[in-house]
Design goal:
Helices cover 33% and strands 15% of the residues. It is α/β, with parallel strands linked by helices.
Length: 492
């Protein structure tokens, strides 16, 4: 029986095809002469027989500085003025209104738009650490111990004022869902870097009290309009990290191998008939699943880790689904060739519980984050691994709610400036980039837009972000849209 796709093609005459498409013979010839690229910026990025996929021809554009990235995403937005951006003026003028000349009536969330803006100092003292003399809040003693290993950016800026659009913007370069995430772009451009594990892995965790209502949407690690083989593989928080790692009783590996080979032949025949790229995705994913059944159980088994390593990550490391456990798994995946590892931890959305929850969040994330840097460093992996720590925006230097209530007040969303840190390959250890005003409200030097951060990430992988594109609906898209420049001031 002929396929509907083939029947439709047979039913079209040459004249009806050209007339319906609105394309003249002349324009077709011109497109051919100009060498209009097909779907991508060079190369074929096709599936390999072993279940992986090659990168695009011509990549990397320049020698790469890193082989992998571990992005520690603090969902809900940590307060920069409480943790990294020391502003003693906020303590000095506690309760006084931030001058209009500073806030300039800028747009905020509806929770505080048009309301008072009383100065609110940090929850705990700041002290200087390391040879670089970096100011870090006392809630982060372990991060303070790696002060000379991190590059701090105080001048991050985003466009969105609410969580989901801001996180989507950070990860995909657009506030609306539907674009490929950064991990998908790198997988598409550079291909697979291991034989038996996904190129792009995602793990999530949350604060122990479950105070944060922020959701982890699948499009945060989606492939958008890229073939779905490039999307992230999300690990489960309980049980096996990935479903169906074990074959059913009575099914041998040899039988499974033969079964997959037969299914792959059928899928390939179908692909040759209809040309649907999702069929190739199915072939690749079936093959990857088979290989993961052998490799994944070993990769996520932390029982072989020595006690001093478990102690390094802290008391929650043996509890599945915690941030500490995920950090250790991230290191294990990194040393096994996973290119993009995305850890997302919620609980930082502290509108009314800043006095109680900020310290708890720091306890959950401080030690594992620093341990990851130290662990990679002692294994010789930090020099070609990039670690990024930060949220989707910052929090207001002014208080939200009654700041004289010792338990129930907080800070609103603040997109105009915030702090992140990076460590590892290609970035200046012990350095600080950018500066905010004395209230921590606006950037006064060396702004780093979200698109600039994305361009810098691509640069460290050896990619010119303006040249890694994908043609969709008649337009060439890229992670950074039509913006962004790599930030040379943070590069080693």
């Amino acid at each position: 029986m002929a396929s509907p796709f083939a029947d439709r093609l047979l039913a079209q005459t040459r004249r009806s095809f050209l007339g319906a498409s609105g394309v003249s013979v002349g324009s077709l010839a011109l497109a051919s002469l100009l060498g209009r690229d097909a779907d991508a910026a060079g190369g074929d990025n096709s599936a390999l027989a072993d279940g992986g996929y090659r990168g695009l021809d011509g990549l990397p554009h320049v020698p790469p500085k890193v082989k992998r990235v571990i992005w520690l995403m603090m969902s809900g937005a940590p307060s920069h003025v409480d943790l990294f951006d020391y502003k003693p003026l906020l303590d000095k003028h506690r309760g006084e209104e931030i001058p209009e000349s500073i806030h300039q009536g800028q747009k905020l969330s509806t929770m505080t738009q048009g309301k008072g803006k009383p100065c609110l100092g940090s929850r705990a003292p700041f002290h200087q650490h390391g040879e670089c003399g970096r100011w870090i809040n006392d809630f982060l003693p372990h991060t303070a111990s790696i002060a000379d290993d991190i590059c701090m950016i105080h001048s991050m800026k985003t466009e969105a004022v609410n969580h989901a659009p801001a996180m989507t913007f950070l990860l995909t370069g657009a506030e609306q869902p539907g674009r490929p995430s950064a991990g998908a772009w790198l997988s598409y451009g550079l291909g697979s870097s291991n034989d038996n594990l996904p190129t792009y892995c995602v793990m999530t965790s949350r604060d122990r009290e479950g105070t944060c209502g922020q959701l982890f949407y699948d499009f945060y690690w989606g492939s958008g309009f890229l073939p779905s083989k490039f999307q992230g593989v999300k690990f489960r928080q309980t049980g096996d990290p990935v479903l169906y790692l074990k074959d059913p009783n009575g099914i041998s590996r040899d039988f499974r191998r033969k079964l997959l080979d037969s299914v792959a032949e059928l899928n390939q025949q179908k692909f040759e008939q209809v040309g649907d790229p999702e069929i190739q995705t199915r072939i690749v994913q079936y093959e990857m699943a088979f290989r993961m059944q052998a490799a994944m159980p070993e990769a996520v088994d932390i029982s072989t880790e020595p006690k001093h390593i478990l102690d390094l990550y802290g008391p929650q490391v043996t509890q599945k689904g915690t941030f500490a456990s995920n950090c250790l798994l991230a290191r294990r995946l990194a040393e096994r060739g996973v290119r993009f590892i995305q850890l997302m931890h919620s609980g930082w959305d502290q509108h009314s519980n800043l006095p109680t929850q900020l310290e708890e969040q720091c306890k959950d994330t401080d030690q594992p984050s620093a341990a990851l840097v130290k662990d990679l460093q002692q294994r010789g992996l930090l020099e070609d691994t990039l670690i990024i720590w930060g949220g989707e925006f910052g929090r207001t230097p002014f208080g939200q709610g009654d700041i004289n209530n010792p338990k129930t007040h907080g800070r609103d969303h603040h997109p105009y400036c915030y702090s992140i840190w990076m460590a590892g390959g290609g970035v200046k250890a012990g350095s600080t980039y950018g500066q905010t005003d004395e209230y921590g409200y606006n950037i006064v030097r060396d702004k780093v837009h979200v698109h600039d951060l994305q361009a810098t990430l691509m640069h460290l992988f050896g990619i010119d972000h303006t040249r890694l594109t994908f043609k969709f609906q008649g337009r060439h898209y890229r992670l950074t849209d039509v913006h962004g420049e790599a930030v040379s001031g943070v590069l080693a």
